[in-house]
Amino acid sequence: MISIRRIEAATPAEREGLMALLIDTVASGASVGFLAPLAPEAAAEYWREALASLGPGRVLWIAEQEGRIVGSVQLAPSLRENSPHRAELQKLFVHSSARGQGLGSRLLREVEQFARSRGITLLVLDTLAGSQAEAVYLHLQWQRVGEVPNWAKDTEGVLRPTVYFFKTLSP
Fold this sequence. Notes:
By secondary structure, this protein is an alpha+beta fold. The protein is built from 4 helices and 7 strands; from the N terminus they run E-H-H-E-E-E-H-E-H-E-E. The protein has helices spanning about 10-25, 40-50, 105-115, 130-140, and strands spanning about 1-5, 60-65, 70-75, 85-95, 120-130, 145-155, 160-170. It has a 7-stranded mixed sheet with strand order 1-2-3-4-5-7-6. The two termini are about 30 Å apart.
């Protein structure tokens, strides 16, 4: 059984689990801002910064299976006066051992429910064009906006395009 919960601070064990999740995600080829192989120190630094920024501008959920973190996702609600209705979905990670079980979809539904409860009606994201993640977002009725060539390097260091999506939520 996989459980999902929002966290506002991480225990040392959760930090270790998040680091392991990020390292696995990059090793599995997901383009999430890092090149492979990802050093444990780089994973630790990413999570130090991400966890320190939790609050109104960043929300984090983790998915756990038998005490091990197997997924996470972040939401960055806009704090600007003219856009409290929107947020950016960031860093959807699913451990390679937990893929194909609908966990990514469950994490996204959790984010959408939270967003609706906060009056957020527009979500945006970007992901590697042609990736497995792109297929997940299309399956879940996200609208593809367009593609930008040579946006970022994939885990192997090759420049690849990114694709932008949005999803409108009903209140």
